[in-house]
Specification:
Helix 11 (447-464) packs parallel to helix 25. This protein is 53% helix and 16% strand.
Length: 869
């Protein structure tokens, strides 16, 4: 065994050679077409055998029918001759011979009125009963010579030939079926191939089964027999009960008698013929295989030496000899290889001269790409930092007493800030997706919840453009999948947003299906908006491309949305297809391979949560927070946000001062900016965790403009519990101060009544209920509902010319904010739509939204009163 292994190992290097590959290529080029041809011949041999059998069996059936037709015609003619002449005047021996040649067993006449026939010839034939004579009279009533169906006389089958002459005398002749049976027995082939003959009523005259002949079995129920009796000819495949097998049969009819003739054969017997053909084809294939192998080996040998010289030169260049060149070939060499040698040497010369230039260009490109990434990172921080201050200041200003004009200007500033932040986020997203090291952070995700929330977010915009959104979810879409949530949300959100923005007074259809076979999630977003030109479809996925249409100019945009869609799908392993027609609309089709998850949603855990779950976090008490940020505006905004919630703050303008404060006194929470001079936030967190100071286990949260998956991992490894992404909102701070460290939300959710949950956000309502219990929280909810009802009812009949119009907008905005804080998400959705419609002065459709909002208030209030009354 070891010697065989050694021999095999010594052969393997030889196989891994140019000649081996060329031999295999030539050999396969010759053999594959031949193999395909042989394969096709083998595959079609059965059908060809069927076709051959169909033709031969039909010919056999027709030949047999012709023989029977001749016999029947001659037998009838003989009967007519004998019945028309006095047999006593004929030579007896000739008559006997003639009668025997056609198997006559009986010849008689029955005069009109007589009861017994006068027998003129008989050869072992039973006496005919009166009923049989009456039956024969009826058959002969037409006046012509008739051949009857087969009749059984004392268990023996006979065919009668009858004729009624002009004076009413019935002439009767009887022949046995021995001739018909003899002809049937001549047809035998294969193991069970045979023939079958039936009379014109479908009774068996001849068949390999004697019992069928002896009983004149009625076979008229068979479809093939019905075809024969109808005078048809052809070939049919059917199941034959006597053979218990599927058969193929040629069938026809005997024109003079109406008999049927069939030649069946079991289809399974055709396999033998097919096997013989297959063996012959395989022999031919083996010969061609040997011939192709010899030719391929010889031809490949003509190329081995030149290719080997080229290979040796390549090895020399690879080993550092840039002056190496392919030496001249000798002997019989294809001209193409000679040309290849010359071109290869020229290429080596050019490469040698250009190598330094190419290396310098690559270095410059890498350096430029590195500068670009750094510039975008700096841009991210430098733009988000002032945006953080601006956004926070506007949020705090919104909570002060402002007149209607100031509120209007404030909303403009907030909208502009949000738009600017969206543009920054899109540019950064495109940059991250375009980098070489895109990483995925898959989590367990509820697909339907994600899509429905996105639709809900776009309902307000759809209302302003009088557009309907139709969402359809297939039943087989999995509830949970494992996928990068942010990238999937980018895809769905941008496609839905585009469809809503570019459709006016139309319909946006969103259809989510699942391909079980390929495990692919499919999203179709179609609209009946303006549509696009075909030439534009080739470039819409490029960054910063904005199609010059009326809607595009109206809605604006950076032209990055579809670029983000394309790159996000590329990172996720999916693809997107677009179809559009001017004046008809646009359809985007996303196909994304996903991993189906059978579990529940992933729990969100906080690093070192066990160390932080001390008693001081079980209630929302006054806290002392350390804020470290090198931007003064950010420190001011965060301080004001904390004061608003009743907490105090100590600020530090750099990492060194932050570390000094953290080592000097204990804090309840530390907020560290990541990009700070001298010592950045990550280093400060590591130093706090590694030193035995008063804040070694204090929760630390990062505040940064950079929030990639790698950043989250780095911050967690430094000992931080979470990340606040700039610009920071009051709600972000509030969540950290309450939800993160208060009694776990799951404990509160268990106490929230089931029938109130469809109307609220259980996480947010759970936070509120922790302060005073479920009943008190429901009381607050009812007060808010009554307040909302009062505000909404005042909108009935409101005109844009009313002096209190702007005041009503302010009241709706205030109530919407209260709904969000207490978790009344159902009512909050309607109030947001009402506010947007009021601000756009689109009050013609306001009544429908008001009606649904009041209905939501009534339903929520009724459920709440069950527990507070």
């Amino acid at each position: 065994m070891s010697s065989f292994k050694q021999s095999l190992l010594s052969i393997l290097p030889r196989l891994n050679a140019v000649r081996s590959y060329l031999f295999v290529a030539m050999f396969l080029s010759a053999i594959i077409p031949l193999a395909v041809m042989i394969y096709n011949r083998v595959q079609t041999s059965y059908q060809r055998e069927i076709a051959r059998v169909e033709q031969s069996h039909l010919i056999i059936a027709k030949n047999l029918a012709s023989t029977l037709d001749t016999y029947a015609v001659d037998a009838i003619a003989t009967f007519n001759f004998l019945s028309s002449n006095n047999l006593e005047l004929l030579e007896p021996s000739s008559v006997q011979k003639l009668m025997a040649s056609y198997d006559f067993r009986y010849l008689a006449t029955l005069k009109a009125g007589a009861n017994q026939p006068l027998v003129s010839y008989e050869r072992t034939f039973p006496e005919l009963a009166a009923a049989r004579l009456d039956e024969l009279k009826k058959i002969a009533a037409s006046g012509t010579t008739k051949l009857t169906p087969v009749f059984l006389e004392q268990g023996e089958p006979f065919l009668f030939i009858v004729k009624l002459d002009g004076i009413g005398t019935l002439h009767i002749g009887a022949v046995d079926t021995s001739f018909v049976i003899a002809q049937q027995k001549k047809i035998a082939f294969g193991e069970r191939g045979h023939s079958m003959i039936v009379d014109h009523e479908g009774h068996v005259l001849a068949h390999p089964k004697p019992e069928w002949v002896d009983t004149a079995k009625d076979a008229s129920g068979l479809k093939v027999v019905q075809e024969m009796l109808a005078g048809n000819s052809g070939v049919m495949q059917f199941f034959a009960p006597p053979l218990k097998a599927d058969v193929i049969a040629g069938y026809t009819s005997v024109s003079s008698t109406g008999w049927g003739v069939m030649v069946p054969q079991p289809i399974s017997e055709l396999a033998a013929a097919v096997t013989v053909q297959t063996k012959e084809l395989l022999k031919l294939f083996a010969l061609m295989l040997m011939f192709a192998g010899c030719i391929s080996w010889v031809l490949s040998g003509l190329i081995v030496k030149p290719v080997k010289k080229i290979s040796e030169t390549v090895s020399e260049v690879r080993n550092g000899d840039s002056s190496a060149r392919v030496r001249a070939f000798t002997g019989l060499v294809p001209s193409e290889l000679t040309s290849m040698r010359q071109m290869f040497n020229a290429l080596l010369q050019n490469w040698s001269e250009s190598r330094s230039v190419l290396e310098a260009a690559i270095d410059a490109a890498n350096e430029a790409n590195s500068h670009k990434s750094k510039a975008i990172a700096v841009l991210s921080h430098e733009m988000r930092t002032p945006l953080n201050g601006l956004s926070g200041a506007l949020e705090l200003l919104d909570e002060t007493n402002l007149d209607p004009k100031q509120i209007k200007l404030l909303k403009i500033a907030e909208t502009s800030t949000a738009a600017l932040l969206e543009h920054v986020n899109r540019v950064l997203e495109v940059s991250k997706l375009g980098s070489a090291n895109v990483t995925l952070s898959p989590v367990r995700l509820n697909v339907e919840e994600l899509v429905r929330n996105l639709v809900l977010e776009h309902m307000a915009l759809a209302t302003t453009t009088d557009t309907e959104i139709d969402l359809n979810f297939a039943d087989d879409v999995p509830q949970y999948i494992d996928v990068d949530k942010e990238k999937l949300r980018n895809v769905f959100a941008n496609l839905i947003s585009n469809a809503v923005k570019f459709t006016k007074a139309g319909t946006v259809e969103i259809c989510v299906t699942f391909d079980q076979e390929n495990q692919q999630l499919q999203l179709k977003v179609s609209d009946n908006g303006l549509g696009m030109l075909q030439e534009d479809l080739e470039r819409i996925f490029e960054p910063f491309v904005v199609i010059d249409t009326e809607y595009a100019r109206y809605n604006g945009g950076t032209g990055l949305g579809l670029s983000i869609v394309k790159k996000s799908l590329s990172a996720l392993g999916g693809d997107v297809e677009v179809k559009s027609k001017i004046g008809k609309g646009t359809e985007f089709i996303v196909n994304l391979p996903v991993e189906v998850s059978s579990g529940e949603l992933d729990e969100v855990t906080i690093p070192q949560a066990a160390e932080l779950a001390s008693s001081k976090w079980q209630s929302i008490e006054k806290m002392n927070v350390l804020i470290a940020d090198d931007h003064e505006v950010n420190r001011i905004v965060l301080t004001e946000m904390l004061k608003k919630f009743g907490h105090s703050a100590v600020t530090a303008s750099c990492g060194e001062l932050a570390l000094e404060s953290a080592m000097a006194e204990p804090f309840d929470l530390i907020l560290l900016d990541i990009s700070m001079p001298e010592i950045d936030g990550t280093e400060v967190a590591e130093l706090i965790r590694n030193q035995d100071g008063p804040n070694r286990t204090t929760p630390i949260w990062a505040q940064t403009a950079n929030a990639s998956a790698e950043d989250h991992t780095r911050f967690s490894q430094a000992g931080m519990q979470g990340v606040l992404v700039k610009p920071i909102k009051s709600w972000d701070v509030y969540q950290i101060l309450t939800q993160q460290f208060s009694t776990l939300a799951t404990e509160s959710e268990e106490q929230i009544p089931q029938d109130i949950r469809p109307f609220i956000d259980t996480d947010q309502f759970g936070i509120i209920s922790e302060a005073g219990g479920i009943k008190k929280a429901l009381k607050h909810l009812e007060d808010m509902l009554l307040d909302a009802e009062f505000v909404i009812e005042k909108l009935d009949g409101l005109s844009t010319q009313d002096a209190t119009y702007d005041d009503q907008i302010a009241h709706v905005h205030r109530i919407a904010g209260a709904c969000a804080m207490i978790g009344a998400v159902d009512l909050h959705h309607y109030l947001v739509n009402i506010e947007l419609m009021l601000r756009r002065r689109s009050i013609s459709d306001l009544s429908g939204v008001i009606e649904r909002a009041l209905q939501s208030i009534s339903q929520t209030f009724q459920v709440s009163r069950r527990y507070t009354a």
